[in-house]
Design brief:
Number of domains: 2
Largest sheet: 7 strands, mixed
Distance between the termini: 62 Å
CATH architecture of the largest domain: 3-Layer(aba) Sandwich
Strand order of the largest sheet: 7-6-8-9-10-14-15
Number of strands: 15
Order of helices and strands: HEHEHEHEHEHEHEHEHEHEHHHEEEEEH
CATH class of the largest domain: Alpha Beta
Amino acid sequence: MKLTRKLALLLLIGLLVPGVAGAADTVKIGLLAPLTGFAAADGLSVLNSVQLAVERVNQDGGLLGRQVELVYYDDRADGKEAVALSRKLIQQDRVAGVVGGSYSTPSRAVAPIFEDEEIPFVAAYAVHPDVTTSGKYCFRNGFLGMVEGKSAGYVSVELLKAKKIALLTSDNDFGRTLAEGFKAYLGDQGKAAQIVFEQTYPFKEKDFKPYLSKVKETNPDLLFASGYYFQTGPIVQQARELGLDVQILGEEGADSPKFLEIAGASAEGFVIVTNLDRDDPRPVVQDFLKTFEQRYQIQPDMVGASAYDAFMIICDGIRRAGSTDGPAIQQAIAATKDYNGLTGVLKGFTDIGEVVKEVQVQIVKDGRFRHFGVVQDMTLITP
């Protein structure tokens, strides 16, 4: 009878005090990703990659003597949906941290909520500045849009030697922010290169030939086509169908096996700025690439690798903090230095939670993304 009362008391303590439920308890980490809707391919890559990360952590003994439990929901890349799910992660699931495995719109929407609740939130690849300006509990493992845009400008001028540049930009936060960064870099370079054509296109556009015909008339050296894989894939394919024989540069939105599938043979020679180098010799990278492709029978991509890193950054913070307490984890993540991530060695985070790391440049060769170059200039990669 005494044992029963003691057990009841322990269970009651576990219910009232988070993290004191005993050795059988788990450390819960949340994930929001677009598992259905227009971005479902990205969401699946995110989920698959983070599940590999969970396996690795648990095989290594978990965190603080407990196994890690992933709690994930489908936000459909929708801000309102993400807000409701974020409250569920906080109030029902009581997570220690959250991976933002979705696009900028839902990530921007939920960041202030996690800030208010003092729960560390690491956006995997969303580019909008509002994600981190929400407060000190919000971090970004991917690149700020301005950083990626400026790096694309650098690649255009310094690596691809372009003088006359055309811009095709997706008419949303993602596309506009990248274009802004690209033009800012060209402005800093004076007359080293000039924009001879600039056009935005509707988010759901499918027929790009009218825009590409106008691009062709300006006879540029390079076309910077910013957008997601379901936009840049058709752009590249239709450009070649029109006989537009020009170097095409994209960015992380095109870093997907779906881009390769849509563009087909037209993808050869396409260059992107991104944060995953498939030819990075470090074991952490090559082991992930091999395991992912063997298990899921598809090439890994930037969104998956970025989400893997975001999850591991939270785990590393919990481990170094020695606690699942939000403020302690936040301080540990903020102090991260020289972290050996899949998407490069993270030099650290700025005071507002922006990552500092090299920007990778990939080129499509024989139907796969391969190393083409790297942007190391600290004035470009530091937000």
